[in-house]
Amino acid sequence: MYLKAKLNIFAGDILGGLNAAIITLPQALAFGVATGFGASAGLWGAIILTLVAGLLGTKVPMISGVTGPVAIVVASIMHALNKDLSAVIFILFLAGIFQVILSLTKLPEIVKYVPYPVISGFMNGVGVIIIIMQINPLFGLPTASNTIASLKNLIKSFGTINLQAFLIGALTLIIVFAFPKRWNKYVPSQILALIVCTIVSIKFGLNVARISEISVSMPAIVMPKTNLHDLISYFHYGVILAIILSSESLLTGLVCTSLTKVQLPAKRLLAAQGIGNICCALTGTMPGSAATMRTVAALKTGASSKIAAIVTSFVLVVLVYKFGDFVAQIPLAVLAGILIKIGYDIIDTKFLKVLNIAPKDDLYVLLAVFLLTVFYNLIVAVGAGIVLAALLYAKRVADKAKIVEKTVYDKDIMNLEIALEKDYKHKIRVVHINGAFFFGSATQLISHFDELLGTRYLILVYDSDDMLDISAIFALEDIILRLKSQHIKILLVIQNDQVREQLNKYDIISQIGKNHLFFDEVEAIDYAKASFKKRVKKKYFN
């Protein structure tokens, strides 16, 4: 029985790693080309980072590599330094060192204080940038260095469009957008588009720009050359890149925690990613972070240990050696189509659906970060919008939030618990939230809710009259889903009619049930007592 369980786990890791590798291949190639590093650097970077970070990181498998936000930051740095590859590699090396240093501090915890509109504005901006910058290669035109240059070049060169490149790019878009989602877990649409469109372009002898060359040899280790002047000049680039790399990895860690119910050590996760990125810099390959989509794909296919990350790297190496010639024939227009789909997926449609009812302050923040990201400078947007304003403000307000927990026992319930030893820990709990409730304070409280295992009824009392911002609403929704996954019944006590109406608009009330919303705390406690008593009696005395 034990051996069978071990074999099932191993099989899940093999399938999960294979699925993650299939998803990683087109993305690594596309982002490598888009940043100017080249397809080989993108692919080998994913191999090295996934292997190193997978071996040194958490028990839960992390599939790593370049992602959309990372690619845009690296491309921005490349443009700012006039494609000085040696300088950029030194910055990548610095970023990896900074990640390791960050892992030795409490700073990894600060990611939870980023307001949702800042994240949404940034992600929407990144998605739009990727789409705009891939329009030119989709039409067979040279890739521009930024969004404004891309739009100008498209208008200027519209008469010289390569029709064959556009047609193969359009076919790519049709496949990645029209392919049924339910089939994606069996055959990812991106790899399908990559294979089909490349074969079509070869069979019909299309005159289109291609990757042309893919290195099958292991990248050589080269120490970055630098001096004190370069260290001072490039220091801020390294810090910004380290923050993006770390934030992406930590957010992926949060998603994995939600899926697996396993609390991941943030410091170890960050240290492993930092060491992996140092290795990437030393080999001149693309840096990256724990990639959410690839990691989730591995987990949902059955992966549960580090073996999945090793399998992913191994499969990618095999693909490089066995199919290197085929990879070299991939049209750039096909990669552009794949990246446009990735850019679309990055856009935060969850927030866009509630724009008409979202608080104005949240919209102002989102719009400012979005515009700075797309039309000015992504590094400035990240540095000014997230690091300075959002994090410091969020941390200051979150510290004012307090919770007061008390356990409520009913005499009859207590007698039942004594008689039924295995259920004696079942409690009714009341949690008061005092102070400002927003994204930072809400996510800070999530870790507290992990201590509620065994609880059957949780009464959440919001004592403040302050309206909730969009961050708090989404965070409250996450808390409800998390508690429901632990089979905990949630009762809300909210006295403010405006707050109640606000939650009703966002369908929060419907998720817990209207009969679980109360004006008075005592009324909620009485309801929980009666429900729990009825549940226990029905279970043991029927």
Descriptive keywords:
single chain, 542 residues, mainly alpha, Transcription Regulator spoIIAA, 2 domains, 5-stranded mixed beta sheet, two-stranded antiparallel sheet, 23 helices, 66% helix, globular
Counting structural domains, the number is 2
Number of helices: 23
Structural class: mainly alpha
Q: Mean of residue pLDDT?
A: 79
Gross geometry = globular
Radius of gyration: 25 Å
Helix content: 55-70%
- The run of helices and strands is HHEHHHHHHHHHEHHHHHHEHEHEHEHHEH
What is the straight-line distance between the termini? 35 Å
Beta-strand proportion: 5-15%
Main sheet strand line-up: 3-4-5-6-7
Low-confidence stretches: 413-424
